[in-house]
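Record 1 of the preview.
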Amino acid sequence: MRFVPERLLTAAAEDPRLVVYTCPGVARRLIDLDDRVRVVGDGDVISVAGFEVTVAGKKHHVSHPDVPPVDNVGFLIDGEVFHPGDALTLLDVPTLLVPGQAPWMTAPDLI
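->
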């Protein structure tokens, strides 16, 4: 799925409380949200809606050897559930939300 900033901009217009925590590459595409975008990086720990969120990862998994990986971060929520984004960031966690469909993914990658 490609990033469609218009969807996020619409959601932000509908809810003025919405704040976006994201990597530098995505933040550059959301300049219209001004101070409602928070750039986070690997190792950052933030509090969101009462949850402790630890940021992990830096780059998207390699899709093609001629294309440099773009920014990507994952989010570990309360040390329990990890959403890696579209990357193969490795963490030892109780629950992993596996990226199940990606252009780089082969069956061995998924397993």
